[in-house]
């Protein structure tokens, strides 16, 4: 099983949205949900370039990356677990189900996001971050999911992996890797962008493990 870090685990997308809306608004630009859907799950530098180009920000992508990182890092420690996460992760871990995080965040950013939730993230045997990917190989490419699967002992077959995702790019990457995907999208995400997932839920509290051959609660 290869769970993604944010926001199905943590409520960080709200923070991302507020920060980028704030920066774009300072230049009279709008950070829309359509644009957000394009960059969700992508490595930070790639996302910054798309945002700058799409809205015409008078900033270089690196400048946007520096400013957004500063604001995000101030707020990440306040991120709370999403409903149903703690129950699911501890349940699967107790039953010996291998767990991983495969995230478009850098390792430094991941540590900042999870510093208040170390006990939960200790259940993850494998962690793969964007630092480990070649340029242009972030989601929706399958690389990060395949890399995570290969690090289990023994390595996991993609067809035996279940990915939890919130973003269309993540769903696309997981499907390209040959894995099943449970999508837990934000309620504001266009329904047309929720296609492709094996299952779509409004909350992890709705997840029934035995549907995918996992131990029941």
TrEMBL record:
Coiled coil: none annotated. The keyword Transmembrane helix does not apply. Keywords: Hydrolase, Magnesium, Metal-binding. It catalyses: psi-UMP + H2O = pseudouridine + phosphate. Dephosphorylates pseudouridine 5'-phosphate, a potential intermediate in rRNA degradation. Pseudouridine is then excreted intact in urine. It comes from Eptatretus burgeri. Gene3D superfamilies: HAD superfamily/HAD-like, Putative phosphatase, domain 2. This is Pseudouridine-5'-phosphatase. GO terms for molecular function: metal ion binding; pseudouridine 5'-phosphatase activity. Belongs to the HAD-like hydrolase superfamily. CbbY/CbbZ/Gph/YieH family. InterPro entries: HAD-like_sf, HAD-SF_hydro_IA, HAD_sf, PGP-like_dom2. Pfam families: Hydrolase (PF00702). Its EC number is 3.1.3.96. Its cofactor is Mg(2+).
């Amino acid at each position: 099983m290869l769970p993604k870090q944010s926001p199905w685990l943590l409520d960080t997308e709200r923070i991302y949205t507020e920060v980028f809306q704030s920066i774009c608004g300072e230049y009279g630009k709008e950070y829309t949900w359509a644009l957000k859907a394009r960059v969700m799950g992508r490595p930070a530098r790639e996302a910054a370039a798309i945002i700058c180009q799409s809205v015409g920000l008078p900033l270089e992508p690196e400048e946007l990356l520096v400013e957004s990182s500063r604001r995000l890092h101030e707020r990440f420690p306040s991120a709370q677990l999403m409903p149903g996460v703690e129950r699911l992760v501890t349940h699967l871990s107790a039953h010996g189900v291998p767990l991983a995080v495969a995230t478009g965040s850098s390792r430094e950013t991941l540590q900042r996001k999870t510093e208040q939730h170390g006990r939960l993230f200790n259940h993850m045997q494998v962690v793969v971050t964007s630092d480990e990917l070649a340029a242009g190989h972030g989601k929706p490419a399958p690389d990060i999911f395949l890399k995570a699967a290969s690090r289990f002992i023994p390595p996991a077959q993609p067809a035996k992996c279940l990915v939890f995702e919130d973003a269309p790019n993540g769903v696309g990457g997981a499907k390209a890797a040959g894995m099943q995907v449970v999508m837990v999208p934000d309620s504001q995400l266009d329904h047309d962008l929720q296609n492709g997932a094996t299952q779509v839920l409004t909350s992890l509290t709705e997840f029934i493990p035995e549907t995918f051959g996992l131990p029941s609660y």
